[in-house]
């Protein structure tokens, strides 16, 4: 794992940080990394529901928790900066991230309108605003996957991607992209994603398949340019993802949209073979037909152009895919551990804010 760069090390222990989606994959990993940097003055917001993502929060150290709907209502009621403890930085990771979600009204409210409300509040209250966009905004990549490109020509393939794209467009139209930071996450994987069910990474799903059957199922290719298993993705380990995010959040050079990925696409076979290698097993892979309803919405190639990230003097690099998979499988999946498990816990506890 590459060391944190000098900008990420500038996170002050007394800085007040709001992390929305704080129990999710990236949100909880951000809190974990902030804890490593000595920061515990954190207000966590999420909607915990009935799944077990609350377990991601158990090893972490933070000051307060507020339900996402309560937070949104307080914004609507005119909450001041003092009401939230004078927040310096908002890491807005909260969203419905299911690419298969069909309730367009829900996505418009949760991913688009809520982001508008929180962004406007941040700017009105002098808090830095960093938010999760998505590589899903690029669609099939026909119009490129360049964070320096025009937004208007992009054509997302699903409603999730469109809800993220709409907020990017709104921020651009209202002259906010020179004041805020948007992160176009590519295929992020790693510990603390168990709650995502069918939206888990292939690493998590494949590990379960191997444990149960000894083999892994991958979708056949329905594109003449790609052989089975050789569809390509830009895979990014969540530990690298949070290093990049905190670098941008603290860099004086960062404004606007940034791709967050490794910068190099790998095949599904590369990924799955790394899982078998981590488990010291011979690969056993079968190919199955992709469901009809996914075929027109499937991305066969994604690769992040990360030149803008690099121009902000990011020097943390990224973990080699095989090494990242090995760390995830052997240190988290096999022992069933979360980020922060087994680490020394300090602090005075958590207050629930309502």
Topology record:
Layout: E1 17-20, H1 25-36, E2 42-46, E3 64-67, H2 68-76, E4 89-92, H3 104-124, E5 128-132, H4 159-173, E6 181-185, E7 187-189, H5 202-213, E8 216-219, E9 232-233, E10 235-237, H6 238-250, E11 256-260, E12 266-267, H7 268-278, E13 285-288, H8 292-295, H9 307-311, H10 321-333, E14 351-353
Parallel strand pairs: 1-2, 1-4, 2-3, 3-14, 4-5, 5-6, 6-11, 7-10, 8-13
Antiparallel strand pairs: 9-12
Q: Which blocks of ≥5 consecutive residues have pLDDT under 50? A: 344-354
Under CATH, the topology can be stated as Rossmann fold
Shape designation: globular
Rg? 20 Å
Spatial order of strands in the largest sheet: 11-6-5-4-1-2-3-14
Tally of domains: 1
User: Architecture, according to CATH?
Assistant: 3-Layer(aba) Sandwich
Number of helical segments with 4 or more residues: 10
Short recap of the structure:
By secondary structure, the protein is α/β, with parallel strands linked by helices.
Structure description:
The chain is α/β, with parallel strands linked by helices. It has a single domain, classed as NAD(P)-binding Rossmann-like Domain (Rossmann fold, 3-Layer(aba) Sandwich). Helix content is 32%, strand content 15%. It has helices at 25-36, 68-76, 104-124, 159-173, 202-213, 238-250, 268-278, 292-295, 307-311, 321-333; strands at residues 17-20, 42-46, 64-67, 89-92, 128-132, 181-185, 187-189, 216-219, 232-233, 235-237, 256-260, 266-267, 285-288, 351-353. The chain has an eight-stranded parallel β-sheet with strand order 11-6-5-4-1-2-3-14, with helices on both faces. α3 packs parallel to α4 (159-173), α5 packs across α7 (268-278) and α7 packs across α10. It is globular, with a radius of gyration of 20 Å. Residues 344-354 have low confidence and may be disordered.
């Amino acid at each position: 794992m590459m060391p944190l760069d000098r900008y990420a090390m500038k996170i002050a222990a007394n800085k007040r940080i709001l992390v929305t989606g704080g129990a999710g994959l990236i949100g909880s990993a951000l809190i974990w990394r902030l804890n490593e940097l000595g920061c515990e003055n954190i207000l966590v917001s999420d909607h915990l529901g009935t799944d077990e993502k609350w377990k991601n929060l158990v090893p972490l150290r933070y000051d307060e928790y507020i339900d996402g709907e309560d937070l949104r209502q307080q914004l609507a009621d005119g909450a001041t900066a003092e009401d939230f403890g004078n927040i310096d930085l908002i890491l807005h990771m909260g969203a419905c991230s299911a690419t298969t979600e069909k309730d367009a009204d829900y996505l418009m409210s949760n991913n688009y309108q809520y982001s508008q409300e929180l962004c406007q509040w941040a700017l009105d209250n002098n808090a830095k605003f960093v938010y999760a966009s998505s590589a899903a905004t690029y669609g099939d990549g026909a119009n490129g996957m360049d964070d320096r490109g025009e937004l208007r020509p992009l054509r997302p393939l699903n409603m999730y991607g469109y809800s993220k794209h709409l907020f990017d467009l709104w921020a651009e139209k209202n002259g906010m992209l020179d004041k805020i930071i948007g992160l176009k996450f590519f295929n992020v994987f790693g510990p603390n994603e168990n709650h995502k069910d069918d939206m888990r990474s292939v690493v998590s799903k494949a590990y379960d398949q191997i444990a149960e059957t000894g083999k892994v199922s991958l979708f056949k290719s329905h594109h003449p340019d790609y052989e089975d298993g050789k569809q390509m993705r830009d895979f990014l380990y969540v530990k690298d993802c949070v290093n990049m995010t905190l670098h941008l959040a603290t860099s004086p050079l960062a404004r606007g949209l940034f791709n967050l990925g490794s910068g190099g696409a790998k095949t599904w076979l590369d990924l799955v073979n790394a899982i078998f290698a981590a488990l010291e097993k011979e690969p056993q892979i079968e190919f199955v037909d992709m469901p009809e309803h996914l075929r027109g919405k499937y991305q066969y190639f994604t690769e992040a152009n990360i030149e803008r990230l690099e121009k902000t003097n990011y020097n943390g690099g990224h973990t080699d895919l095989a090494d990242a998979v090995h760390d995830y499988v052997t240190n988290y999946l096999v022992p069933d551990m979360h980020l922060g498990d087994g680490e020394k816990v300090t602090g005075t506890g958590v207050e629930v804010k309502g």
